[in-house]
Amino acid sequence: MKRGFLKTEKASGARSRSFNNLNLTTSVVPLQNAPFNFSPFSRVISRDPYIVEADDRLRGSDSVQFLFFPSNIPTSVFVDTLKNIHTFEKWINQAQRTPPPNSAAPAFAIRGCAGKGLGVFAQRAIRRGELIMAERPVYVSRPGISTIANSGEAFYESALAGLSPDAQRSVLALRNAQPPDNGVGAILGRLHTNALVAKPPFDPSARYLALFPNLCRLNHDCTPNSHYSFSSETFTGRILAVRAIEEGEELTLGYVDLVAPRDARRVGLREKYHFECTCPTCELPEEKLLVSDAKRRVIAAYFARLGGGTKIPADASLEEVKQLIKHAEDDGLVEALSILVVSALRLAKKAKNHHEEIKYVVDGVNWMRILEGNDAPGFCVMAKRLGMEPEELVEVFDCGEPIDYARFKELLERGRKE
């Protein structure tokens, strides 16, 4: 998982627009005891849904709007063009009736972390594939949004000004790791430091930028124990355990490309997040570090041959990919493992190696539920196909015993017939 970064670009300046019978007012009402205020050029388009035009001087279909939701006490803002705002607004009315899941007994706590400021820690033992936390973003925007007239902090202050005071303060509570002399302000600095990827429901292939009060608190590790994903269906960010986590252990994510060697990872972290990584992987003894770097380099080289596509390289072999899977397992590279297992499955199919195909179908199901959660719809469907409840299949995968692939072969063949 990679964190996002925000870029701005100039708008076209078009001035014609239809508001679809919404009533445009001439002012916005500032909140009491709130950190941020709207720009003098911001105008309310609608109170319910609560939509504010970022800059009334830039009218047109490409002008930027702020949609605050829920309308009564807004805790989230969606920043996009008018067209996408209306598309999203129709969806959020339905989604708000299905709030994100919340654990009655949170599995995590945020507290001080030596050398890192704050961190997130497990309050109890957490199982692999378990959903640790889920929350809606307090801020989400499309990269490249126009800030031509409301440039700089004024634009971002307006984007937060319609939120409840508590929601505004939750953004300010996030760390700003950007140096004072780099020209970004308090809000944009927090976006550069903390932004995660969000996928809007009307275009799940798009990559938006999002800030979360709790999810953004997880610190980096080059062999993280947690995985971030975003659910377009519920418009929530999710943190999942990629391995068993002990009580008191810090929860971590990977901020940069984890299949890069240590020096490249450190450079990326230093340039984007302004800290020197001292995680256990980066602090390995020199001999072990060389081995780790070599494994990550060959995995990276294979991914370069994939080119970001879905087809396996013409010169790839099953034996090669099996070795790469072993490397990824050795270094705890779970996201890399999920990609490599798909390659192995396709190579086994190509070779008509039915035994290996079954193995990688099962392994693929296992890695899917680790990255998407034990409650993932796809995992639940596969469990049913195998004649099990999802909880039963989780027990099979996590019992500590070698997987009986022959058993799964019989179940899969029976599922095909049914």
Describe the SSE topology.
Blueprint: E1 43-47, E2 50-53, E3 64-69, E4 76-81, H1 82-95, E5 108-113, E6 117-122, E7 131-135, E8 139-141, H2 153-161, H3 165-172, H4 186-194, E9 196-198, E10 208-211, E11 219-220, E12 226-231, E13 236-241, E14 250-253, H5 262-273, H6 286-306, H7 318-331, H8 334-350, H9 354-372, H10 377-385, H11 390-398, H12 405-417
Parallel strand pairs: 4-8, 11-14
Antiparallel strand pairs: 1-2, 2-3, 3-4, 5-6, 6-14, 7-13, 8-10, 9-10, 12-13
Helix pairs in contact: 6-7, 7-8, 8-9, 9-12
Pfam families: SET
InterPro entries: SET_dom (IPR001214), SET_dom_sf (IPR046341), SET_domain_protein (IPR053185), TPR-like_helical_dom_sf (IPR011990)
Organism: Mycena chlorophos
Structure commentary:
This protein is an alpha+beta fold. Among the domains are: 1-100 and 137-185, no CATH class; 284-417, no CATH class. The chain contains twelve helices and 14 strands. It has helices spanning 82-95, 153-161, 165-172, 186-194, 262-273, 286-306, 318-331, 334-350, 354-372, 377-385, 390-398, 405-417, and strands at residues 43-47, 50-53, 64-69, 76-81, 108-113, 117-122, 131-135, 139-141, 196-198, 208-211, 219-220, 226-231, 236-241, 250-253. The strands form three sheets. It has a seven-stranded mixed β-sheet, sandwiched between helices. Strands 5-6-14-11 form a four-stranded mixed β-sheet, with no helix packed on it. A three-stranded antiparallel β-sheet has the order 7-13-12. A hairpin with a 6-residue loop joins β3 and β4 (76-81). It is globular and about 65 Å long. It starts with 42 loop residues before the first strand and ends with a helix. It holds the Pfam family SET. Residues 106-256 form the SET domain. This is SET domain-containing protein.
